[in-house]
Amino acid sequence: MIDFVKLTHLVAAIFWMGGMAFMILALRPVAVKLLEPPEQLQLLGAVWKRFFIVVMVSIVALFASGTNLYTTAFRAIKAATGTGSVPLGWNVMLVLGLLMMLIFGYIYFAGYARFKRAVAAQDWPLAGKAAAQIQTLMLTNFVLGWLSIAAVRLVR
Ligand code: HEM
Predict the structure, then answer these.
(1) Which of 153, 50, 20, 152 minimizes the C-alpha distance to 96?
(2) Are the beta carbons of 156 and 92 closer than 8 angstroms?
(3) To test ligand 1's pocket by mutation, which of 92, 93, 140 has the most ligand atoms within 8 angstroms of CB?
(4) Confidence (pTM)
């Protein structure tokens, strides 16, 4: 069972992190280079619409599997040693993971909503500003994701 939970955690992380890597390193730079703002922003909006559903499913899976892994190990360590001290890297992952989820909530409910309103009104400068903010927050989450993975592997 625990192997299945770990696999779920890994798959969800790969979808979210891999999607962000593709958006940041490939899709957006090419869209900015080849397309004028209206087409560029419409393309990004259509891609986000699909990708954000993937992220939401990943978040549910990461949260459920991550808290399960954490509490299962916490209980086992407590039963074996009397103290419930999990590796520090796990606490770093818990905190950074929750922060990433909050940042995504802000991207989706504030930034993306603003972006969609601006696109609907064909206000391209405003849509461009909202897109830049989404991009910055996505980059922040990308960095936090790698930091949390590094912490869970390297910090004991
Ligand atoms: C509520 C948030 C989270 C919690 C409580 C959590 C908890 C954990 C725990 C306890 C482990 C260690 C499992 C073990 O070695 O037995 C782990 C591993 C891992 N987590 Fe998370 N996690 C969370 C969020 C995330 C997020 C957002 C990502 C992706 C960016 C992520 C990616 C990973 C990866 C890739 C591993 C495997 C590292 C390895 O190979 O040892 N986790 N997580």
Answers:
(1) 152
(2) no
(3) 93
(4) 0.96
What are the domain boundaries of the chain? 2-154
DSSP state of 110: I
* Mean pLDDT, the chain cut into blocks of 10 residues (156 residues total): 96 98 98 97 98 99 98 95 92 98 98 98 98 98 98 96
Which residues are within 8 A (CB) of 143 and not within 5 positions of it... i.e. 6 or more apart?
none
What is the Cα–Cα distance from 103 to 118, expressed in whole angstroms? 21
Give the number of the atom of ligand 1 that is nearest the alpha carbon of residue 10: 35
Q: Are 48 and 114 in contact (CB under 8 A)?
A: no
User: Is there a contact between 100 and 13 (Cβ–Cβ < 8 Å)?
Assistant: no
Ligand 1 midpoint to CA 79 (Å): 22
